Amino acid sequence: xxxxxxxxxxxxxxxxxxxxxxxxxxxxxxxxxxxxxxxxxxxxxxxxxxxxxxxxxxxxxxxxxxxxxxxxxxxxxxxxxxxxxxxxxxxxxxxxxxxxxxxxxxxxxxxxxxxxxxxxxxxxxxxxxxxxxxxxxxxxxxxxxxxxxxxxxxxxxxxxxxxxxxxxxxxxxxxxxxxxxxxxxxxxxxxxxxxxxxxxxxxxxxxxxxxxxxxxxxxxxxxxxxxxxxxxxxxxxxxxxxxxxxxxxxxxxxxxxxxxxxxxxxxxxxxxxxxxxxxxxxxxxxxxxxxxxxxxxxxxxxxxxxxxxxxxxxxxxxxxxxxxxxxxxxxxxxxxxxxxxxxxxxxxxxxxxxxxxxxxxxxxxxxxxxxxxxxxxxxxxxxxxxxxxxxxxxxxxxxxxxxxxxxxxxxxxxxxxxxxxxxxxxxxxxxxxxxxxxxxxxxxxxxxxxxxxxxxxxxxxxxxxxxxxxxxxxxxxxxxxxxxxxxxxxxxxxxxx
Length: 497
Ligand code: NAI
Ligand code: MG
Description:
Layout: H1 3-15, E1 25-27, E2 30-32, E3 39-44, E4 49-55, H2 59-73, H3 76-79, H4 82-98, H5 100-111, H6 115-135, E5 150-158, E6 161-165, H7 171-184, E7 188-192, H8 199-211, E8 218-220, H9 225-233, E9 240-244, H10 247-257, E10 263-267, E11 273-276, H11 282-294, E12 306-310, H12 311-327, H13 345-360, E13 364-367, E14 371-372, E15 382-383, E16 386-389, H14 396-399, E17 406-412, H15 415-422, E18 427-428, E19 430-434, H16 438-447, E20 452-455, E21 470-471, E22 474-475, H17 480-486, E23 488-496
Helix pairs in contact: 1-5, 2-9, 4-6, 4-8, 5-6, 6-7, 7-8, 11-12
């Protein structure tokens, strides 16, 4: 651990919080309290205790931010030479790295995630800004061949003011993967982080400001979804919404966007299958299954929450996975245990409810299955790493997103059945395939209905790989150069010579 990181961890462990956390909105280049002065609390899931207060935004605060973002649309950001915009975004990446330790400790306190994962998220956020910084001056249009009497070309114009509704499972990562391409495309931004995890988005906005992003270009309004979030997505001054969260809220957001014909990207839930064929490297598969479902305590939209395994290797693989799951230590994220807490008490109840109902239906619980606390303190919202074995295709636990450390196992006898099971939920976000059979892997990659397929490494890729869902997992793509296109509108110009 670096001395910088040690200092922040020690302060957090000694005081339960950090001094100097942001507690106001970031609007038009300054920290602003809510118009009505209201605040709310954020809690540390590892202890279940309040550790900071922040502004509870209302429609008036959202309106101030959207107005600032609209004013800034006409200003220096859009008109800046793209290479210069890129230099500013590279500085954001450098500032994220310079503040990585503090950002990671705050992310752990606010979301519950393990410190090592928070540090990974911070590094990923910096990489994301570097990636789009480098793309600013390469985001070029086309010339269109209409023959000698015409000159025809396309321009990429920024879509305008972009709203970003951010969930609590990856607060900084999701903010960065929305803000960086939007800013690179020349847009202005209003972000609304989740009420459970408002802090790192505010810190990111301050770093953007320090890096030279002009006032009004990058705004953050905190508060609840019902108040701040709903006011933002129905605001007529917003031109594009990127929403990451639950299917039901996504449906509400789509409805709110309709009257204003606001563009949308929806990143919703998943119930992603991880397929292990009979010829797979089982040690590799077991290792990947662990990360796919127990990283971030399973609170990942693209978690590999269904393990689809060939009957002939089911016993061997599940023995390894259940033993490793049972051996994971639980504890406060700052101590870097095997697995951290769930994000909120209500979410813990939701996860526990799925497992209790499965047990009542007679589903076999191979390991785990109980809510618990940090063994050192008796506090926090934890759920044991859990494996539910041999589930039927239409079981509730197979069909619905649990969003916790609960692996649902389904057994198949041949590839046809494996494919039917893989596609047999309302979701289509990602899929993993573990096999040494090149043809089988690529046939499955072709036939599985998902936005991305990982072969022999779950979560393979990075910022350059487009990411998004099919079916009820949403539509539109983030990351990669596709995200730059999401935040641009094409204008075609045709001249008769
Ligand atoms: P949610 O979808 O309600 O919250 C996500 C974000 O939307 C938060 O910033 C929230 O403040 C905002 N929001 C809520 N209502 C809104 C509205 N009417 N208009 C605009 N913004 C609004 O999800 P929630 O309640 O936190 O979690 C429920 C379930 O959703 C989880 O158990 C999980 O299954 C799923 N989920 C999926 C995520 C993903 O990454 N796909 C992330 C978070 C939750
Ligand atoms: Mg919190």
